[in-house]
Target: DUF1828 domain-containing protein
Amino acid sequence: MKTELTDLFQQVKSDFCNLMDYKLRGNTLEIITGVSTLTNHYVSVFVSLQSGTYIISDGGWIDKGFYDNIISSEDEDVFQRVETQFQAHFDIRQTKHRDGTRYYFKAVENPELISVMVRDVSQYVSAIVNSQAIAFNEAKETSQRATFYQDVNTYLREHYGSDILELNGSLKRHGEELAAIRFNAIIRRPTTTHLVMYVTGYTAPLFVKDACEATVNFQIAKKDIRVSRSGIFQRSAIVNTMANGFVPVKVNEYLANLEKELEHPLISYHSDKSKILEQIPERVAA
Model:
């Protein structure tokens, strides 16, 4: 039994070690760790030797947003306190490059301590990125989302009958495993099915999350052979450009990726809701 447990430990140790990789970047070693973030990235730590001292840093990647980490302006005060706590816990220092990029790092002269420094810096990066992914204004997010959903749902009900409009619908009829793939609205006609997703969010990270979820749902619907064989599908996305999280410089890239999955341009609900009726006609010519 002890031998089996020891073998199990060796297997787990090997698997964890295999999660790590590296890249040589000039005189700097990038260590790609097995530490992950809520934004679906693995953390990289950068090691360099400067005047006899090893510098272990985040490479400026937190500040540059390489981990898709975005801070809402309303969360800045809260996040500042969180960042201070993590810096104290992991004993992290920071400096600013002449180009304005902020770097977080630890320094050590003894090379035998580098592994410990890599662990601390990678865990710090993960903690910071994960804390930035959290919505601290949950009540406001819930309220704003509920209002937008209600407005769009009411508009759709006014123009499409309940016999063809399904709110918060799924593709379950095409396969049980597709039951979890839900759309904010599905409008079913004899020859064409319209899949609709809403995009909103009180903070930029939540807005990006909505855009990414819509993109993935449309991709699944497009690639599943059972869905594609069942008729013609049209995909539309309705965007809340009045949401607090709609910050073009931070979300436009994700909206552009979403639009690639659609047959029509994105619809800005508050400025051009009439486009909904153009993309999804109220009546189909006989």
In short: The longest strand covers residues 28-36. The mean pLDDT is 85.
